[in-house]
Design a protein that fits this description.
It is built from 13 helices and eleven strands. By secondary structure, it is an alpha/beta fold. Among the domains are: 89 residues, Spore Coat Polysaccharide Biosynthesis Protein SpsA, Chain A, CATH 3.90.550.10; 53 residues. Strands 1, 2, 3, 4, 5, 6, 8, 10 and 11 form a nine-stranded mixed sheet that branches. The chain has a two-stranded antiparallel sheet with strand order 7-9. Strand 2, helix 2 and strand 3 form a beta-alpha-beta unit. It comes from Oribacterium parvum ACB1. This is Glycosyltransferase 2-like domain-containing protein.
Length: 291
């Protein structure tokens, strides 16, 4: 079974190089593909030096976002004979047993199209898996406060995620995913209309539409630094929130088919969240200056 992995880099050659060196110690991978997403720093010179028979460097002509960059790498792998392909953010870390455990689910579950292990972020802020929802619950899931208040409706119970070595879920965290060649080709991979954020919900919708199931392998886990790569390239919380909200609006429109009244509700809800983000960023900056 030929297996490859994609690392999408944007101005984060230090983390990408570290991850490549880690993955090279695992004989499982036929190819380790680095996709440089039109970095504006000196990533290319550093990453070019890593190339060998197993490590390949692909250069995107322009930065079209997470989905487009990962699609470029995944297509390369499947066009070059891979049966399965992982993608991993540069700010992730793995043990060798992680990858065979995840791959084993494709043999156990014939309808499996997308699989990952448990994501550990070190501080417990991010969910490793969650449910797909209609418009109203999706809107509640987008707000920091409403997400906490209504968490019992929005997310899986911990007991469900821990009951078996693997469980079926709707959505997986996008810092590490594994596709089969068939599921990638039939689903079309990531929707390249999305630059950043909402990719997990979108790929879950696409898998569901073409009849594939999504599984979380609870027997293994990997480490992910919360917003490690994104935080390097987009330092402003407000700018990140604006990008996130634009992707949310696109998701609601394209995949949940919202209309006039719902669009007004989105505008009001997002405006409140953006104001909260502005105040928090201003408070954090003032607090930092006073030290």
């Amino acid at each position: 079974m030929a297996v490859g992995i994609v690392i999408l880099n944007y101005n984060d050659w230090e983390n990408s190089s570290r991850l490549v060196e880690e993955l090279e110690t695992f004989p499982l991978f036929s190819y380790i593909v680095i996709v440089d997403n039109a970095s504006t720093d000196d990533s290319l010179s550093h990453l070019s030096a890593l190339q060998n028979e197993r490590v390949k460097l692909l250069c995107a002509k322009e930065n079209q976002g997470y989905g487009a960059g990962n699609n470029l790498g995944l297509r390369f792998l499947f066009e070059n004979g891979m049966c399965h392909a992982f993608l991993a953010n540069p700010d992730t870390s793995f043990t060798e047993e992680y990858f065979p455990a995840v791959l084993s689910l494709f043999q156990r579950e014939r309808e499996a199209g997308l699989v990952s292990g448990v994501m550990q972020d070190g501080i417990g802020l991010q969910k490793t898996a969650w449910k797909l929802h209609g418009f109203f619950l999706s809107l509640l899931a987008s707000g920091p406060l409403s997400r906490r208040v209504f968490s019992s409706y929005l997310f899986y119970k911990k007991a469900y995620l821990k009951q078996k070595p693997y469980v079926q879920v709707d959505c997986l965290h996008g810092s590490c995913l594994c596709f089969s060649k068939e599921s990638f080709e039939k689903s079309g991979g990531f929707d390249e209309d999305f630059f950043l954020y909402e990719e997990e919900n979108v790929i879950a919708q696409r898998m569901k539409k073409v009849g594939f199931k999504v599984f979380l392998c609870t027997a293994v886990s990997y480490l992910h630094q919360d917003s490690g790569s994104t935080g390097k390239s987009i330092k402003s919380l407000v700018k990140r929130e604006k990008i996130r909200q634009a992707s949310e609006r696109l998701y609601y429109s394209k995949y949940l088919s919202i209309r006039g009244g719902q669009k007004l509700l989105v505008y009001i809800f997002q405006t409140i969240i953006l104001l909260e983000t502005l105040l928090y960023e201003a408070y954090s900056a003032k607090k930092k200056q006073s030290r």
